[in-house]
Amino acid sequence: MKKIAFHWQVLIGLITGILFGVFLKEYVPYISWMGVLFLRGLRMIIIPLVLTSIISGIANIGNARNFGRLGLKTMFYYTTTSLLAILTGLFLVNQFKPGVNADLGLIKKVDGLDLMQDSFGGTLIKIIPTNIFEAFSNGDMLPIIFFALLFGFFITQTSKKSSVFMTDLFNSFFEVMMKITMFVIKFTPIGILGIVSKAISEAPSITEFAGRMGIYMLTVLVGLFIHAMITLPVLVKAFGRVNPFWHLKNMLTPLITAFSTASSSATLPLTMNAVEFKSGVSNKITSFTLPLGATVNMDGTALYECVAALFIAQAYGVELTIAQQAIVVFTALLASIGAAGIPMAGLVMISIILSAVGLPLEGVGLILAVDPLLDMFRTTVNVYSDSCGAVIIAKSEGEILNDKTN
Ligand code: ASP
To answer: What residue ranges line ligand 1, CB within 6 angstroms?
Structure first.
């Protein structure tokens, strides 16, 4: 029998969930456990996935030859564009307000919520754990990320024998975690069925629910569009000194692949090929920046993290202060860096932000249903930004690109 493509499976899960929630309410308790199990599965992988992703990423960068000027430039580009993406998302979510005053049946649950009352400074101080095992067992993501960054960096400072061994070891751990994640993600369709049927059966109004989800998706999509069609092209023109549409055309194959696979890592070989042979960036720069970019530089994911976390906060009726929004921006950046280049990794990472501002992790259930679709769009933007980065860095290193349209 021919296998049904994943996105169709998701759609079938979604529609069945909606039908159950609307017409077969009394049966929902018999299927909602599937959603609970799925969310537990996602939460199970968060800590080991983030830990191994960051340690192996940092150890690999540090061990790369030529790290130094090129590495710093690359990191600078990655953080700047991700921040620009997040700020675009922040602006839009505060304008569109997809979750404000939304009656989705969540607000009543906010009573007794352990909302983070710390000041911005307080949160920063707590990034340094006093006991890393306590951070692991409490799921405090910021201290875990801090420790992972340190650990990854100091792997590169050990003797050659140890650093090669440890880097290989963490690369292998990371590979295993990606396999486990892909395995858990396979259950998305039935997870969605369980979660959506419950959410719909409890939602005071279905049209309200659908309308709010629609505005949320629109907010993310408009943000991604602005970033890909305005921000990045302006940077490519200003600093890469090539015609952004010429570069965009060169990237069509990897971009379509990114859209259909929802995986930056799976798209990587095509991205490298297009950037090197169509846009004319040297092999030295493509092979340094793009593999790194596929896991570290995720502008689309960063924007989405910020919008999704604030949408969840709004839906719970929680108003975040400016300082808390600053924490969201900062953690969205970390989450996008820590996300693996595989489908729906961004969804797993939302927990980092929710835990940093003290929102319930169950909030992830709210955005799950539409995540596979948004994933396709944000992955396309992730890959496009990697390619723009390669062009800009190549230009800054004095390379001549293929653009004949200029
Ligand atoms: N799927 C995305 C990627 O591979 C990551 C994410 O889920 O945001 O780039």
So the answer is: 262-264, 298, 301, 339, 341-346, 375, 378-379, 382
Q: Give the model's confidence band at 112: pLDDT under 50 very low, under 70 low, under 90 confident, else very high.
A: very low
| Domain assignment present for 89 | yes
Least Cα distance to 242 among 278, 202, 213, 217 occurs for: 278
Alpha helices (H) in 64-159, listed in sequence order:
69-96, 120-125, 132-138, 141-155
If one counts the domains in the chain, the total is: 1
User: How far, in Å, CA of 300 to CA of 220, rounded?
Assistant: 9
Domain that holds residue 376: 6-396
Write the DSSP symbol of residue 237: I
The one-letter code for the residue type at 392 is I
Q: Which two tokens stand for residue 162?
A: 């140890």
| CATH number, position 124 | 1.10.3860.10
- Measured CA to CA, the distance from residue 224 to residue 222 in angstroms comes to 5
The residue that leads in pLDDT, 155 or 292, is 155
Q: What does the H/E/C string look like for 337-388?
A: HHCCCCCCHHHHHHHHHHHHHCCCHHHHHHHHCCHHHHHHHHHHHHHHHHHH
Query: pTM (2 decimals)?
Result: 0.83
Ligand 1 geometric centre to CA of 258 (Å): 9
Question: Domain for residue 404, yes or no?
Answer: no
In this structure, which residue's CA is closest to atom 8 in ligand 1?
A: 346
| Residue 403 placed within a domain | no
Residue 64 carries which side chain, given as an amino acid letter?
A
Residue among 306, 359, 313 at smallest CA distance from 334: 306
Inside any domain, residue 1: no
Q: In testing the pocket of ligand 1, which one of 10, 182, 344 has its CB within 8 Å of the most ligand atoms?
A: 344
Predicted confidence (pLDDT) at residue 309 exceeds the cutoff of 80: yes
pLDDT tens digits for 366-402? 888 889 889 999 999 999 999 999 999 999 988 877 7
Ligand 1 atom closest to residue 265's alpha carbon, by position in its atom list: 4
User: Whole-angstrom distance between the N-terminal and C-terminal Cα of the chain?
Assistant: 52
Alpha helices in 126-159 (DSSP H): 132-138, 141-155
